Amino acid sequence: MLIYQKLIYQFMSHDAATSSLLDIRDVMFSYNSKKKILNGVNLTVNPGEIIGISGENGTGKSTLLKIIVGLLKPKSGQVSPHGRIGYSPQDILLFDNLTVMENFEIFGSGLNLKKSEIRKQANEIMNQLNFSQYAGELVRNLSGGTMQKLNFGVSLLGEPDVFVLDEPYQGLDYVSFQTFWEIQFNLREKGKSIVIVSHMIEDTSKFTKSYHLINKRLQGCDRKDCPVCCQ
Amino acid sequence: MTEKIVLSAASRGFVLVKFIRLTLSFLKNLFRQKAIIFSTLVLPLFLIWSTWWVTAEIPMRFKLTTDVIISQTMVNVHLYTGALTAMGLTAGLFGFIVSVENNRIGERLELSGYSTTIVNLSSFLSLLLALTTSVILTVLFTLFLRQPKSDYGFVLSVVFVALIYSAFGNFIASVTNQFTEGSLIVLVFSFIDLMLFSNPMGEQIYLQDWTRFLPGFWPTQLVLESSFIGKNELMSQVLLYSILYALFFLVAGLAVTKIKKVN
User: Any CB–CB contact under 8 A between A195 and chain B?
Assistant: First the structure.
């Protein structure tokens, strides 16, 4: 089954290579002039790809994602998105004293969605991720896992073309973890792309492409001969 | 051409709706926090009462910028300037803490389609609206303790200090998001300004030329003039300076936020 899935991914990636959703070319970034965090980072994200980026703590994974979504500007190089990007940050960035639905409403409103449309999408997302019973609950009263679901759920609003997810399954239980992946596969089937960053990517078969962030740049991982982690 | 105008009007409408919705959300998020009761209500009342309670009825004489000489007891002077200090401290601290929290979530809001300016302005407006309760209480409590000659001037000086110092807190939040550092800067600066340098209690420094550039100087002059003389000659000057100061801190905060993003 996994080999079959993998073949489909490869086919889709090849087919869509000409119309990428995101292109990163030779990106360099440093927080101060002395120490480079990223140097010569290249990445192409095609429709229907699920890309995994792993690396040790402090290697610049979250920084790379912030550059992709536009929260940080690279010192040199180019980031060219060809579609809307949805972002689920590593830290839970939500209004703690608003309810789950109110959070969906305020973030959806930024995307110029009508209230009825936001509610429809929010209900679908909550049902999929199995936390619709908390729609009227204040975020500060939610468990860590449910907050993480909402953090991820908000990024699904407005159906972006590329999802950029920073450590998205932290705090999720096993069932939610499985659901999370079902959603990723559904999104991929719709031609959406997903970039997932994690310090640990154990099950590399779920990804179309895997990369390790080592020595300030992305190194492709072909699993069999990967010297880093995938044995 | 007509299409363009319609589109532009529609887009302005969208921006306004977004601005109002975001302001209301920030406000709702604020009023559902228990800490707000302490920071905006209990803190100023405690500061005003304690300042009034510990000060003796010692006579004192001081001048205003208008060269009018006022003879009053220290406790009376301390009560009104204490009310301003309490308001400045509360507005500054509250402004800083709320802005740090809102800036954190602001990044995500911007990715959801809100502009940096809308996020900052909504955050600041919600802050001002939340501080209204604090201003009302500060005024009522001070009036309960002593009656100034002109209520009008006293009330406006409290409002001006709230405006200036909430903008100052907002500005500090754009410079640092560290709670300890930021709170300390706001506390020390507002105290030194309103309780020492702009205040006739700080005899050695009071009315030196450079103190006129302190954000609390003109509201303090107004509160003294209106409370003890009953005139509001300085009103237009104070209004102008206060708005300029608040705008300066607000624009500086926005500029720092944008510069940080670029770098």
Answer: no
